């Protein structure tokens, strides 16, 4: 464990949250730009969907491949190199004049984003003691809120006034600025290299052992179940609200801004709560609440928009609340020397669950002659069934022996009277 003062630790965590913010915004901003992109490149909705999904699938493959090398490098160096390439991918996307190049740039962004996501969580797990990791994860999770509050609305506004490429120019500029800050703030992180990396010839066999180890497999199953249940419902909220409830497309952004603003504050609070009560206990609490929230969303009656805004904010708070403790639990599963590789592989599983959930969710839905979306209630029941299985399965996910012991932290790491105690994981 690295001996960082609390001030340096907090500064580093917020910087990593900004890195994650650009990754999330890069993925999210494509969807509302659909009409402009389809018009600019004269492509069908199916072709546009391929461009959107290219990011997710390539992110998963990249995360899986990164598991063979991520623990061979200084965390700082890998983060900076991947972030430069990520900025370059957005620059290429902004400059593209053909659909083929657009597809390639989105795939390239997914490849770099997959490595960055794993790198961010590996740094958090290396630097932050288990006793504070839930709170740190909560800060990282605010990147989703920031993307919903500011990133996506700003991108859509720029796209409306300056063309579809404008948000990607913004992302390239933001990434360059945050990358410069990262070069100054992120310290060299090489402690995981002390044992020496495995030989290159053993890379693929090592990956096989990583993926098939019983403790890791149980964690991967949990990740897949959670993302599958989540993405069965989330991508289709906007189409259902517009088609079935008459919400104007321009008002959808207000719902996401309200949800993002709410989760910006609650993600950190949930993280602190999970540190005190135990990560699994808090996951089960929010997971149970999420079952009710998903059924309410997928069986939503016609309600005034003024009521829909706070309801959607509550839905987002509960949905994101179950994700914060899950991330903290997953960081305790691998041994320290395999943490980066494990989180890379877990990111691949997450991307697979994301893509599979959206695909299956689309198969379960249909439209009638009036344009209404049919089958969303059934999708809700399928999602709830899978999420309920995850609530049971989390009890089978175990931590590495080293992660079960309270960690000793240097005296200058803890402010007077602020020393946290390791919460029970039961």
Explained architecture:
It is a single chain. By secondary structure, the protein is an all-alpha fold. Helices cover 74% and strands 1% of the residues. It has a two-stranded antiparallel sheet with strand order 1-2. The chain is globular, with a radius of gyration of 21 Å. The two termini are 24 Å apart.
Fold topology:
Elements: H1 6-28, H2 34-41, H3 45-66, H4 75-95, H5 99-127, H6 130-162, H7 166-185, H8 203-212, H9 214-233, H10 237-245, H11 249-277, H12 279-298, H13 305-321, H14 323-331, H15 339-364, E1 366-367, E2 373-374, H16 376-393
Antiparallel strand pairs: 1-2
Distance between the termini: 24 Å
Shape: globular
Mean pLDDT: 81
Strand segment tally: 2
The gyration radius over C-alpha positions equals 21 Å
């Amino acid at each position: 464990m690295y001996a960082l003062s609390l001030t340096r630790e907090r500064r580093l965590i917020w910087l990593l949250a900004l890195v994650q913010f650009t990754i999330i915004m890069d993925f999210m901003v494509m969807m509302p730009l659909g009409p402009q992109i389809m018009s600019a490149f004269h492509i069908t909705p199916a072709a546009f969907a391929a461009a959107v999904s290219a990011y997710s699938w390539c992110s998963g493959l990249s995360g899986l491949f990164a598991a063979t090398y991520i623990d061979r490098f200084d965390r700082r160096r890998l983060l900076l190199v991947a972030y430069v390439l990520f900025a370059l991918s957005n620059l290429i996307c902004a400059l593209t004049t053909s659909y083929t190049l657009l597809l390639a740039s989105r795939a390239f962004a997914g490849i770099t984003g997959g490595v960055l996501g794993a790198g961010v969580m590996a740094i958090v797990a290396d630097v932050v003691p288990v006793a504070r990791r839930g709170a740190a994860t909560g800060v990282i999770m605010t990147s989703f809120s920031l993307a919903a509050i500011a990133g996506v609305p700003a991108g859509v506004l720029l796209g409306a006034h300056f063309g579809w490429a404008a948000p990607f120019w913004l992302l390239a500029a933001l990434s360059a600025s945050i990358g410069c800050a990262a070069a100054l703030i992120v310290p060299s992180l090489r402690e995981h290299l002390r044992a020496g990396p495995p030989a290159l010839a053993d890379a693929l066999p090592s990956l096989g052992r990583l993926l098939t180890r019983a403790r890791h497999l149980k964690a991967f199953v949990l990740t897949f179940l959670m993302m599958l249940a989540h993405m069965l419902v989330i991508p289709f909220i906007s189409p259902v609200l517009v088609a079935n409830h008459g919400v104007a497309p321009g008002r959808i952004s207000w719902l996401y801004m309200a949800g993002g603003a709410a989760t910006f504050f609650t993600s950190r609070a949930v993280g602190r709560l999970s540190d005190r009560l135990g990560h699994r206990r808090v996951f089960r609490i929010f997971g149970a609440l999420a079952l009710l929230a998903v059924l309410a969303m997928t069986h939503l009656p016609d309600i005034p928009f003024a009521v829909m805004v706070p309801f959607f904010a509550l839905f987002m708070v509960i949905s994101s609340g179950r994700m914060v403790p899950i991330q903290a639990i997953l960081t305790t599963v691998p041994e320290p020397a395999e943490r980066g590789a494990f989180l890379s592989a877990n990111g691949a599983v997450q991307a697979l669950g994301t893509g599979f959930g959206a695909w299956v969710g689309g198969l379960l839905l249909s439209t009638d002659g009036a344009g209404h979306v049919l089958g969303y209630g059934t999708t809700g029941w399928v999602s709830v069934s899978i999420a309920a299985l995850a609530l049971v399965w989390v009890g089978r996910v175990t931590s590495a022996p080293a992660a079960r012991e309270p960690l000793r932290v240097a005296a200058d790491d803890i402010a007077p009277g602020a020393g946290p105690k390791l919460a029970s994981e039961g």
